[in-house]
Specification:
The complex is a heterotrimer of chains A (about 525), B (about 400) and C (about 300). Chain A is of the alpha/beta class and about 525 residues long. Chain A has 17 helices and 24 strands. Chain A folds into three domains: about 1-90 and about 210-255, P-loop containing nucleotide triphosphate hydrolases (Rossmann fold), CATH 3.40.50; about 270-350 and about 435-525, Rossmann fold; about 360-435, no CATH class. The longest helix of chain A has 16 residues, at about 190-205. Chain A starts with a strand and ends in an 11-residue tail after the last helix. Chain B is built from 15 helices and no strands. The radius of gyration of chain B is 25 Å and the shape is globular. Classes of the chains: A alpha/beta (about 525), B mainly alpha (about 400), C mainly alpha (about 300).
Chain lengths: ~525, ~400, ~300
């Protein structure tokens, strides 16, 4: 029943169309407050194949996999495992069905050894005694079985990320899983580790295991997957054979959508640079997340920074806002160097920031809306004069924000957690806009907002730009980037891979740079 | 890429009704929040009754206790005076702890801080003299400075070494004992005084730094307190302090930033708040206010500081802050409650067979049940709020 | 030998250090179990205080050994309160611990009045028969027993299934739960064990070390034990060495008499030592990763 296919490693075997199905989803649907995360998704994964699930952020991939692992339940539709319909209501049930999942954020005990992590909860030994020798022996055997050089006695925190991922896989194998789900396994790996992971995956496949993995990076997906299913906006668009398709075709399935909103044209030409970043470097736990970024944002300009999450945008933003000290390079705001300035000083000089994680870092949820409405500007008049707050002015501002941005709020005095997530975001946006900034750093500003709110935010950004504001827009929504940006930069692997004119760039082109398929830079030495 | 049909432009969203205050909901929430202390008081009362029954094995004793608590605790002509006077150091201590709590800090060192404050004030009060208008404020400030100084080490340890303030402030309490012993038996001893070590004390405080009794004032209002009742003008100062605390927390920029770092420090940094500086200021302010707690004893009721003045105000202060939920009004109310329990315990000791320390059990139970009750109420209200939000969305 | 050297490291001082080490080490062992399971127990001092009271009371009524047992029981019950508050109700762990300490300030006095007619001390109690330790003189049998307990604790912590699961609950409860470990049950166990040890530590103090209960006799040993835990980097061996160090500073409070160092300063040595430890070591050591954080089983991943 297996077919022979020409793959990058020569001729590979992959299950053919008559192969039994390891996992099947029929019409699976999952809704959250107002959002349809999965919309009647059909998925068929053959036994013994490597099946990739791709799609943009928010397309519904993680949710679908969580349902296979028992962390969520479908509202409609059914899931079949090895041909039998099953209700997977907890991870324990999934483990019993021999399904295992490696999450994107590892669940490892750093201080324990590899063996201890793998056997926790299913320890060998009698009468409560922990037989570490036996544990190490068994784990060592398993590790050799799929070709890793892991030493079961090593402490997990000393391992490289790729090795740690291997430990997560060992946890599944130790418990007898033969359907393995990997959530964005390559997101945290460097290229050599990716290749090692693929070797392991091939070796697991030879042992008859079925692997489903979620991925962003199309060249990697094509290198290892047998078949690919594309999700977009919660729907399954289609399934293709990896051998018979190209990156362009898959990218088109991922991002193509009806253009609902026109490109918003601005009236003012860009002026002199407001923000200048020179050779910025940020090192996190030994890895250079920002590896020499040069970037400029001018007055009356929206600079869109496109990129798959995890390529250094977060650290770049932290360094710009003042939450993290860079390890190299310089930052200038309005010709003043701010590389080591405090957040407050940067705000005083005209920086405004819409954080990516608005609930945790943008608001204090138990405090009222009129207090949250001035957070970050609370020390300026009219909100505070000589140290005394003016609640009336704060309330007035909050009411104005709520009105202008159409925030659905019960009252100005309600606590922050009384708002839905989308409305919390609107409040944070409104607040930052209203601070009359010179430079606005907006991280994923329309994430979670509906069409009307999105259009409104876009209008605000463009109006601000026309009035002289410099905007650094970080977004994973290519449509948004293309609709708003005067210039677009793509960040990949901690560097700017290319800078394009906003009016001329296409989604396809951006997609290729974002996934690393193309780069204007010389390959790193 | 296929170009698809462009659907009609979306309609602008319907007008969102302007936000308005929902008084019924506010009242309901307030009611719930009062429920917690009420429930805890009821529970404490029940447990108290049980304890008395177990120990004394007679309902008559329970009745005795209840009547002592009523008659002597409240109805005695001077009861209120004792209660006000007793509540005074409790209020200061509670405010000190509350300032820390607001910033997310646990200042358990109020005990040592108020001892050092009292000592400093006693010294400044006795070694200097001058017109009251100058000497008294100076002495009070000295008391605050003593408390602040004793909070300095834990503050520095926290900000610069990341050391948790619970252990460091408790160590400072024990150190304070040592320092007091050293100074009171040596350099600062009253030269005219004789007696055992426990009675060691400082030289008398100059009258120009002493604070008078409030009995006259109250009696002019219609009360009939005994002239020796221990209520001084510090009581008024305590109330004023509670008001200032309330206003500062709710109405000043400092209070605002304090609350932000105490509730969600992760949102403080992006908002430009300097968290380390705020921690420092909060600890030091807490110590300064703690320094006030012992001043009534040293400058009002007596005119010296002695070793056995270290009376547990610090830990009561923690209980007061927890019970009063860190609000000015709550702290005053809690302080009055605990002061009443103290007064009632004297009554129990005087006129029943039950040991007066039974009130300690009440206090203990109140503290424990209150923290659990507040947590449950908080979670319930938050869940209700979330449900409403989802229904509205 | 010069006088001061004898005072610092002579036999009498060492013997005193060992005797002072016992309550500290017992308390630290207890704290080890609850902290490594992820729960902070500031109230361990209060649990020791209850141990001192119930140890003496039990010894008076039923004999020394029974007194120790009663104290263990008492400590465990108080710890149960802490566990319910922090693990089930998820009250802030420090607040709950402080509440327990406040309880321990008032309740023993009430109990003393009821039991002895006065509030601050108990009558003298009969002690366990002393044993002769070569080189150090006569000691309570609890001293070698404590060392045995230490070895047992080490074994349980590092060589049993329970120990592995306990440690995982304090490092990464989510990971543990995802593998089937019942974090809530494990944390309860950790807290109750700490109460038992604290009770025993307190009982040693009142029954064996002094021979009666005195109000306030614990003198903050619970907090010193927490500092020893930090200094010992949350390990059994480390805690033992750290407790010995602190025990030594307590021995010095008795044996060190130097004319030019004031007595009050010597009395404060254990507390100064604790502050120094905090200043130097707090950042360099490695507490259990998830200690102090409330854990909600089954919360969305």
């Amino acid at each position: 029943m297996a077919e022979e296919v020409a793959g990058p490693e020569g001729v590979e075997r992959q299950p053919g169309p008559e192969a039994p199905l390891a996992v099947e989803c029929r019409g699976v649907t999952r809704r959250y407050a107002g959002v349809v995360a999965n919309d009647h998704v059909d998925l068929a994964v053959r036994e013994g194949e490597v099946h990739a699930l791709v799609g943009e952020n928010g397309a519904g991939k993680s949710t679908l996999m969580k349902m296979l692992y028992g962390l969520e339940q479908p509202d409609e539709g059914e899931i079949l495992v090895r041909g039998q319909p099953e209700r997977i209501d907890s991870p324990r049930k999934a483990i019993a069905l021999r399904i295992g999942m490696v999450h994107q954020h590892f669940m490892l005990v750093d201080a324990f050894t590899v063996a201890e992590n793998v056997v926790l909860g299913a320890e060998p030994g009698t009468g409560g005694r922990l037989d570490l020798d036996e544990a190490e022996r068994r784990v060592g055997e398993l590790a050799r079985g799929f070709g890793t050089r892991l030493d079961p006695g090593d402490r997990v925190e000393t391992l490289a990320v790729g090795q740690q991922q291997r430990v997560e896989i060992l946890k599944l194998l130790y418990r007898g899983a033969d359907i393995l789900i990997l959530d964005e396994p390559t997101a945290v790996l460097v290229p050599q580790e990716v290749e090692e992971l693929f070797q392991s995956m091939r070796s697991l496949k030879e042992q008859g295991k079925t692997i489903i993995f979620i991925a962003h990076s199309l060249d990697e997906v094509l290198a290892i997957a047998d078949r690919i299913t594309v999700l977009r906006d919660g729907k399954a668009i289609g399934t293709v054979d990896a051998a018979g398709t190209t990156e362009e075709e898959v990218a088109e399935m991922m991002v193509g959508r009806p253009v609902l909103l026109e490109r918003v044209h601005g009236k003012t030409p860009p002026g002199s640079p407001m923000l200048q970043i020179k050779d910025l470097r940020v090192v996190v736990r030994g890895k250079e997340q920002v590896a020499g970024v040069d970037l400029e944002v001018r007055r009356s300009e929206i600079y869109g920074l496109a990129g798959v999450e995890g390529n250094g945008q977060a650290e770049l933003v932290e360094a710009l806002v003042g939450l993290r000290q860079p390890d190299g390079g310089r930052i200038y705001l309005n010709d003043e160097e701010i590389t080591s300035a405090s957040v407050r000083d940067r705000r005083e000089q005209g920086l405004a920031y819409i954080p990516e994680d608005r609930h945790a870092r943008g608001m204090v949820l138990p405090m009222t809306l009129w207090e949250n409405g001035v957070l970050g500007q609370h020390q300026r008049p009219p909100f505070s004069r000589r140290g005394i707050l003016d609640p009336k002015a704060m309330r007035a501002r909050a009411a104005a924000l709520i009105r202008d941005f159409r925030v659905k709020a019960p009252s100005v005095g309600a606590p922050g957690y009384a708002l839905s997530g989308g409305n919390q975001q609107k409040l944070v946006l409104a607040r930052e806009f209203a601070s009359e900034p010179k430079l606005l750093i907006a991280a994923y500003p329309t994430r979670g907002l509906d069409i009307g709110a999105t259009e409104f935010v876009w209008k605000e950004l463009v109006e601000g730009r026309d009035a002289g504001l410099a905007v650094l827009l970080i977004s994973a929504d290519l449509e948004e980037i293309l609709a708003l940006s005067d210039r677009v930069g793509v960040i990949y692997d901690g560097r700017i891979a290319t800078e394009l004119d906003g009016a001329a760039a296409t989604m396809n082109e951006l997609g290729l740079y974002m996934t690393g398929a193309r780069s204007d830079r010389e390959p790193a030495a | 890429m296929k170009v698809e049909e462009r659907p009609p432009a979306p309609q602008p969203p319907a007008e969102v009704p302007p936000p308005r205050v929902d008084w019924a909901e506010q009242a309901r929430r307030f009611g719930f929040q009062l429920l917690a202390p009420f429930a805890s008081l009821v529970l404490a009362a029940i447990l108290g009754v049980l304890v008395v029954l177990v120990v004394q094995r007679s309902w008559a004793d329970v009745a005795d206790v209840a009547s002592a608590m009523w008659d002597y605790g409240l109805m005695n002509p001077s009861s209120l005076a004792f209660i006000f006077g007793r509540a005074t150091p409790f209020i200061f201590a509670g405010l000190a702890v509350a300032i820390g709590f607001k910033a997310g800090l646990f200042n358990i060192g109020v005990e040592g801080q108020y001892a050092m404050g009292a000592l400093t004030a006693a010294v400044v009060g006795s070694k200097l003299s001058g017109p009251t208008a100058v000497h008294l404020p100076l002495t009070i400030l000295a008391g605050m400075a003593g408390g602040l100084a004793w909070a300095l080490v834990p503050a520095l340890l926290k900000v610069y070494r990341g050391a948790h303030e619970v252990i460091s402030t408790i160590m400072m309490n024990y150190l304070a004992n040592g320092v007091l012993l050293f100074l009171l038996s040596g350099a600062l001893k009253d030269p005219d005084q004789v007696g055992s070590i426990a009675q060691q004390r400082t030289a008398p405080v100059d009258p120009s730094a002493q604070v008078g009794s409030m009995v006259g004032f109250f009696n002019s209002l219609g009360f009939s307190f005994r002239s020796s009742a221990p209520v001084t003008w510090f009581f008024l100062l305590a109330l004023v302090a509670a008001v200032i605390y309330s206003l500062t927390v709710r109405r000043t920029r400092f209070g605002f930033e304090l609350r932000v770092i105490g509730t969600n420090p992760r949102a403080a940094e992006p908002a430009g708040i300097r968290t380390n500086a705020m921690f420092m200021k909060a600890m030091l302010l807490s110590g300064a206010v703690a320094g006030l707690a012992g001043l009534q004893d040293v400058l009002g009721i007596d005119d010296f500081m002695k070793l056995d003045y270290v009376r547990g105000y610090g830990f009561i202060g923690i209980a007061i802050a927890l019970l009063g939920r860190n609000s000015g009004l709550g702290i005053v109310a809690a302080a009055l409650l605990f002061a009443y329990l103290d007064r009632a315990s004297s009554g129990i000791g005087l006129s029943t067979d039950v040991p007066k320390e039974v009130t300690y059990i009440l206090q203990g139970v109140i503290i424990l049940t209150i923290v659990i009750a507040y947590e449950l109420v908080r979670r319930y209200l938050a869940r209700r709020q979330l449900r409403e939000t989802h229904e509205r969305a | 030998m010069p006088e001061i050297v004898t005072q610092l490291i002579g036999i009498a001082t060492i013997a005193a250090a060992v005797r002072a080490f016992v309550p500290l080490f017992l308390a630290t062992l207890g704290a080890l179990f609850n902290e490594r399971s992820g729960v902070v127990n500031i109230g361990i001092d209060g649990m020791m205080i209850f141990g001192t009271w119930f140890g003496a009371w039990g010894a008076l009524r039923f004999g020394a050994a029974a007194g120790l047992l009663v104290a263990v029981l008492a400590g465990t019950l108080v710890a149960l309160i802490h566990a319910v508050a922090t693990v089930t109700f998820r009250v802030d762990q420090i607040v709950s611990g402080v509440a327990i300490n406040v309880l321990a300030l008032g309740i023993p006095r009430f109990l003393s009045i009821v039991a002895y007619g006065q509030g601050t001390q108990s009558p003298a109690v009969l002690q366990l028969p002393k044993i002769d330790v070569p080189g150090l003189g006569e000691m309570s049998p609890l001293v070698p027993f404590t060392l045995l307990l230490g070895v047992a604790a080490w074994y349980v912590m590092n060589r049993t299934v329970f120990g592995l699961r306990l440690r995982s609950s304090g490092e990464n409860p989510r990971a543990a739960e995802s593998l089937g470990v019942r974090v809530v049950a494990v944390r309860y166990a950790g807290v109750l064990i700490s109460g038992a040890f604290a009770g025993l530590a307190g009982a040693y103090l009142s029954v064996e070390f002094v021979g009666q209960y005195n109000e306030g006799m614990n003198q903050g040993r619970g907090f010193i034990a927490l500092a020893a835990l930090i200094l010992g980097n949350w390990t059994v061996v480390g805690s033992a060495l750290a407790s010995l160090l602190f025990g030594w500073t307590q021995a010095l409070t008795v044996y060190l008499e130097v004319s030019w160092i004031n007595d009050a300063f010597i009395q404060s040595l254990p507390y100064i030592a604790t502050l120094v430890v905090l200043a130097l070591f707090f950042r360099r050591v490695r507490p259990p990763k998830a200690v102090g954080q409330a854990y909600e089983a089954g919360a969305p991943v």
